[in-house]
Specification:
The chain is α/β, with parallel strands linked by helices. It has helices at about 10-15, 65-75, 90-100, 115-120, 145-150, 190, 200-205, 245-255, 265-270, 270-285; strands at about 30-35, 50-55, 80, 105-110, 130-135, 165-170, 180-185, 210, 230-235, 255-260.
Length: about 290
Amino acid sequence: MKHKRKLGLAVLATTAAITLAASCAPADSGRTAASGRHAPADGPSHTATPTIVLVHGAWADASSWAEVTERLQKRGFTVLAPPDTLRGVATDTANLRAFLQTLTGPVVLAGHSYGGFVISNAATGLKNIKALVYIDAFIPDTGETVGQLSAAKPGSVLAVSDPSTVFNSVPIPNGGGDVDLYVKPNLFPGFFAGGVPLNKSAVLAAGQRPFAASALTEPSGVPAWKTIPSFALIGTADKVIPPAEQQVMTARAGSNTVSVNAPHLSMVSNPAAVTDVVIRAVQSIG
């Protein structure tokens, strides 16, 4: 079926999203468990096919979605991957919400890691957001923070008493004492990019986007998952958001969930599995 593409900003955003290619490894063989009512599809199957919006997380950029973007585009979907400024929940939510309000027609909104915070807040009250997809992501409730959820279950590399052991910090000019956090390059491959070839993970570490330290303690507002159906992928080798905590969050949200043997950057190491979950969400809105 031919897919109707959007013009203007949609084309520009899609082009920007695929300019940097991330590495990948075969994914479907890593699936360990799945639940859900909707089988994957080869492409769009609706008259009003949704636009798919992909939101990256901390210490990443839109190129982390490159392999997933390419797979979805080959199946005829319009895919947009806007930048997440990583300044904090309120700022990042406002930016994404403004972007989403320029779109017409149904939208499937996906977020990775901290991107789960952003999509949970930005989609609240927007009627054209038909499904949420959480990829190794936080699924916060009202008042919860990144720091709180990271430490809710043991095993997160973020839950450390001395952040300087994990991060390099850079003062934010006119930031009132706030700092930008960068994951130490020698730790990035093992912590964030396990399962990715070392040469590729080194490239990801070199190009990481900084995350404002204040964002770790900024609370979520009322989340959209309370009114919008959600889907989720849990990487069982995730060292950033412990799988046990992801299971708690997905159960609370009632997410249609799949687990795969993947690290935190599952859309880089296991893009086919991530693509499958996104398509399940598309098929669910009928």
